Backbone:
C-alpha cells in the first residue's frame, strides 16, 4: 500500500472514531430529564423591550386539526395525494399553497408525507404557479441585497401561462 | 316592408368588436380576431366582398406567452438594405412597443394577399384600457376570451382558505414559522440602513 493510501485510511479511521465519540456525548446529553413534553406543535415568538429580548416557544394546537381530509385507507398506505387520485394543474392554488411554507420554501417530504414522484410533481407545479404570478404572498422573504434569491430580470414582468392547462 | 330594409342594413353594417387580451395567448387570439376582421363569422361572407368588421383590442401589454417564450422567441426584421437583418427577443420588442406582438400575430394569421393591409387598418390596438371616446362610442359587441384567466391566491378570501380541507397535518415536534408583515420587515431594513450609516460616519 502506498504512502498516500495509508495516510488516507488513517485519516478515515481517526475521523470515524471522532464521530463516534461525538455521538456518544450527544446520547449522554439526551438522557437528561425534560420538564415539559417534547412532542408538541409549537411556534417561536421573539419580543424586544428595551435591552431585553425574550424568545418564547409557545405550544399550540395544530390550526388544521379538524380539517384534514379523511379517506378510507385500504390495505395499501398511500401518500396524501396518491390516495385522492386527483389530476392537479398549476392553477389549483388551494391545494398547491398547502405545500408551501410561510417562509416561501417547499414543505419537506418528511413533513408532508408525500411519495417521491408526487413531491417532484409538486415542486414543478409550485414553480409554475410562482412564474404565472398566482401566489404573490407566498414568495420567499426579502433577502439582503448581496445575495438575493429572487432575480429581477426584465422579462419576468410579463405574464406567463403553461400550455397543457388553459383551454376554454 | 320597412322591417326587411332595417334587417338588410343590419347585415351589411360594419360592427365594432371589443377584445380584452389580458392573460391571453397572442397567437391563438389572433386567429379569432382575424375571423371577425375578414367577416368569416357572417353567413354573407365572400373573400372578395368587403364584409369585415372592426376590432378594438385592449390590454395588449398584459398578453401572456408560454413558459420561456418571452426570453427565447425572436422576431426577425429586414430593412431590405445592406446589413438590414436583425433579431429581437419577444420581451425587448414588447418593452419598446407593447402592441407590436399582437399586430404581428394578426398579420401572420390573416389572408396572404393584397387584402391583408386593408384588414390591418381595421384593427385598433391599445396597450391599456385607455381608449379614445370616439372609438369607444362605436363599440357594440364583445369577442369572448379564449383562455380562462386563473384565480390568484389573493382572490380567495381568508374564510375560503380556512374552510378548504387540508391534505396533511403538521407532525408532532414541528415548529410553525410566522411570517412577519411587510411593515415589520421594512422597519428592520430601515434600522439596518441607519446602523450602517452610523458606522460609516464613525
Residues:
Amino acid at each position: 500500500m502506498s504512502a498516500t493510501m495509508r495516510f488516507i485510511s488513517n485519516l478515515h479511521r481517526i475521523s470515524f472514531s471522532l464521530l463516534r465519540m461525538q455521538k456518544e456525548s450527544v446520547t449522554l446529553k439526551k438522557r437528561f430529564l425534560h420538564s415539559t413534553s417534547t412532542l408538541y406543535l409549537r411556534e417561536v415568538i421573539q419580543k424586544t423591550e428595551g435591552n431585553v429580548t425574550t424568545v418564547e416557544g409557545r405550544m399550540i394546537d395544530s390550526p388544521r386539526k379538524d380539517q384534514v381530509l379523511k379517506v378510507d385507507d385500504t390495505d395499501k398506505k398511500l401518500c396524501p395525494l396518491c390516495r385522492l387520485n386527483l389530476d392537479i394543474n398549476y392553477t389549483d392554488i388551494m391545494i398547491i399553497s398547502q405545500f408551501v411554507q410561510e417562509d416561501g420554501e417547499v414543505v419537506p417530504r418528511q413533513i408532508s408525507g408525500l411519495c417521491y414522484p408526487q413531491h417532484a410533481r409538486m415542486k414543478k407545479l409550485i414553480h409554475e404557479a410562482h412564474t404565472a404570478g398566482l401566489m404573490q404572498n407566498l414568495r420567499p422573504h426579502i433577502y439582503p441585497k448581496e445575495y438575493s434569491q429572487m432575480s429581477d430580470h426584465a422579462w419576468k414582468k410579463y405574464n406567463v401561462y403553461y400550455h397543457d392547462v388553459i383551454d376554454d | 316592408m320597412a322591417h326587411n330594409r332595417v334587417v338588410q342594413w343590419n347585415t351589411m353594417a360594419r360592427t365594432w368588436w371589443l377584445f380584452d387580451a389580458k392573460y391571453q395567448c397572442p397567437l391563438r387570439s389572433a386567429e379569432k380576431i382575424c375571423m371577425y376582421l375578414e367577416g368569416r363569422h357572417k353567413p354573407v361572407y365572400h373573400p372578395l366582398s368587403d364584409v369585415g368588421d372592426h376590432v378594438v383590442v385592449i390590454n395588449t401589454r398584459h398578453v401572456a406567452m408560454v413558459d420561456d417564450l418571452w426570453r427565447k422567441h425572436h422576431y426577425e426584421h429586414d430593412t431590405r438594405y445592406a446589413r438590414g437583418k436583425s433579431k429581437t427577443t419577444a420581451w425587448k420588442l414588447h418593452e419598446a412597443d407593447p402592441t407590436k406582438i399582437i399586430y404581428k400575430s394578426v398579420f401572420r394569421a390573416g389572408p396572404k394577399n393584397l387584402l391583408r393591409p386593408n384588414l390591418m387598418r381595421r384593427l385598433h390596438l391599445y396597450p391599456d384600457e385607455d381608449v379614445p371616446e370616439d372609438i369607444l362610442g362605436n363599440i357594440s359587441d364583445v369577442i369572448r376570451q379564449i383562455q380562462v384567466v386563473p384565480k390568484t391566491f389573493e382572490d380567495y378570501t381568508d374564510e375560503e382558505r380556512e374552510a378548504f380541507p387540508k391534505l396533511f397535518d403538521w407532525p408532532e415536534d414541528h415548529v410553525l414559522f410566522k411570517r412577519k408583515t411587510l411593515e415589520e420587515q421594512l422597519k428592520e431594513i430601515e434600522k439596518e440602513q441607519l446602523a450602517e450609516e452610523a458606522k460609516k460616519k464613525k
Q: What stands out?
A: The mean pLDDT of chain A is 77.
